[in-house]
Amino acid sequence: MKKLIAVLLSALMLFAACACAEENVTLTFVRIGTDEAERAYWEWVIGEFETAHPNIKIEYDEKAIGDAMDTYLNTRFASGDGVDVMGHGILSVAQRVEAEQYAPIDEYFEAWEGKDDIMEAVLANGTYNGHVYGLGYSVTPYVFAYRIDLLEEIGRDVPTTWEELADTARELTQYDDNGNVAFSGFCYPQTGGNLVELDVFVYGNGGRYIEDGEPVFEGNDEVKEALAFLAELLPEVNLTYSSSEVNPFVTGNAAMTLINNAALTTMLNNPEYAGKVGIALPPNNGTPASFCGCNMLFIGTGCEHPDEAFEFISFVLSSESTLKRAEMVKIPVTRKSLVEAYSKMDEWNDMRSLCVEYGTGMPRVTWSTSFQAVRNELSQSVIFGGTDADAALQKAQADIEFRMGN
Q1: Same domain, yes or no: 256 and 370
Q2: Is-contact 356 332, C-beta < 8 A?
Q3: For 263-313, how does the pLDDT look when each residue is reduced to its tens digit (9 = 90+)?
Q4: How far is it, in rounded angstroms, from Cα 348 to Cα 138?
Q5: Are 348 and 279 in contact (CB under 8 A)?
Q6: Domain with 80 in it
Q7: Whole-prediction pTM
Q8: What CATH number corresponds to the domain at position 209?
């Protein structure tokens, strides 16, 4: 009997040890970006998650936007030591799905309590070839920013159409003695790394650059009309600058602009412009639209604990965590049920949410970086270089097809 009891106790202890070993899980997590506000949020949410799930530890890391993140992930996956959870952007979706680094999460998504609450535009960013791979946690909408005081001075309402934008911009523009623009009625970047401002006008004209996964530049009337509108207006009202520079609107040298919501923060916090800056959905030509970037959470294909990984993702995207993020990082919410609560945090948050709702991100195609380069050249050559739009669109089609083939 004593031997039997001893054997049973040993077996029980071995079972308990195995159970503990199975229960204690460490997940590697790396996200794109190194800013302080984001870091503070992730420290908070990871702490809350680990308290609620004492058997799961999150091994956190972060990499700078650009090559640093991609080089890190490429090295990890090439060595066979992938990452369990990744926070990355739209441009990564197609490439890393095709490289079999992002795992589909359709089954988890269907069972998730927030599946019907996430904004459709946000969900679309992480969907590829009919499968869900990533869920958005951070959105960066482009908003239409305007000077309330200057519009009031000339007795005009906030422009909602292209025609109203053009008329108002011309009336607000000021010129120096040589006839050059000294104060911009509406400013728009001439150069830069990713000229998404053109996308806002193309989408606002009911247009798209891609149909059924293929580029459609040549003969695209909606794109041509957007280019023509800007080419006629901007020489009369614009100041020359790059999207990598401070927007003239933020420095007080423009009355209206399209701008990344986050880039407007310094001006909104500047006492000099208190009560003078407003936010709206960009003026359109019949289709409410904007551009909206998005960072999403993905599960790596080599993750040995996908259940726990999605548990972490769902915790980050919970209502409590999402509202906390909006408070700490000043980022719009991604869940429809939280829009009202988010709107109460700031008088302009309802407009920020609207820009997210109607926002479209970068194309989810393996040749998205090539698209970016071709679209940038199109914008520069037609709007600021005087190139014929039809010829430029034909060249863009040839360029993108050549890049796709190589």
Answers
A1: yes
A2: yes
A3: 999 999 999 999 999 999 999 999 999 999 999 999 999 999 999 999 999
A4: 18
A5: yes
A6: 13-139+295-344
A7: 0.91
A8: 3.40.190.10
